[in-house]
């Protein structure tokens, strides 16, 4: 029976939708950032998608709307992204995880997704041992406003001295705007105590939608940044959209060289270690060609009845 068709369930008729759950930005199950993917959500209303996202209680859930092959070749596979609270125009781990889930069916070397921000291609390469690495190209970054160390410290439960002085707190967007906040030490990252009401009041009057805290003091010697992102749904184990913004920020301010692939570690405080590989190029004075990549593994399959 195909998705959206009616089936007898619980004494009545219900529509039936299959889904898969992926762990993204990790090669190990039960780590990284979990994502529910509905490969064929045709027939679901906006209200139902939002209700399903609340039901999964994951940071994001994605809904795929298959179209004619000729349309998908030109525009990409139509995908919508929901948190338990709202629909997002773009998010990194849902983009990568959805592409991985679709690749399981097709084996394609590239899958393009048609998101609210536009067409986002994801390229796949096979590494040693048959491991598959996926890398998305995000829209070119918009480098935005700078922020006061005092104001960020106040909403984040930090001392002003916890925030680095040699790098700016700056809003960057590659589809979703984050203020990149450089901290001096990993200890400062560990003691974050965000007052979400204050954070929401602050972000409402700035360009940033969320805050992404980073420090150059890392656990993994291979990593360039250690990161945390805490939002209204709790702590995000891996934030691909923010990592893309951080890639642009790193190249803009000399933390990474143009087109150098570097590792961001995230999720350690949430007991969900994640490895996010990023790079960005430069054309003249502009940062361009932001790419975010990693691995993903399937952990669960099931069916939803509506």
What are the SSEs and their pairings?
Layout: E1 6-9, E2 12-24, E3 33-38, H1 46-56, E4 61-65, H2 69-75, E5 77-82, E6 87-88, H3 92-106, E7 110-115, E8 118-126, E9 132-137, E10 142-146, H4 149-156, E11 170-173, E12 177-183, H5 186-190, H6 196-204, E13 210-215, E14 223-231, E15 234-236, H7 240-252, E16 262-266, E17 274-283, E18 286-294, E19 296-305
Parallel strand pairs: 3-4, 5-7, 12-13, 14-16
Antiparallel strand pairs: 1-2, 2-3, 2-19, 4-5, 5-6, 7-8, 8-9, 9-18, 10-11, 11-12, 13-14, 14-15, 16-17, 17-18
Helix pairs in contact: 3-7
Report on this model:
This protein is α+β, with helices and mostly antiparallel strands. It folds into 2 domains: 6-138 and 295-305, Diaminopimelate Epimerase, Chain A, domain 1; 142-290, Diaminopimelate Epimerase, Chain A, domain 1. 22% of the residues lie in helices and 41% in strands. The chain contains 7 helices and 19 strands. It has helices at 46-56, 69-75, 92-106, 149-156, 186-190, 196-204, 240-252; strands at 6-9, 12-24, 33-38, 61-65, 77-82, 87-88, 110-115, 118-126, 132-137, 142-146, 170-173, 177-183, 210-215, 223-231, 234-236, 262-266, 274-283, 286-294, 296-305. The chain has a 19-stranded mixed sheet that branches. Helix 1 (46-56) links the parallel strand 3 and strand 4. Helix 3 (92-106) crosses helix 7. The radius of gyration is 19 Å and the shape is globular. The protein starts with 5 loop residues before the first strand and ends with a strand. The model has no long low-confidence stretch (mean pLDDT 95).
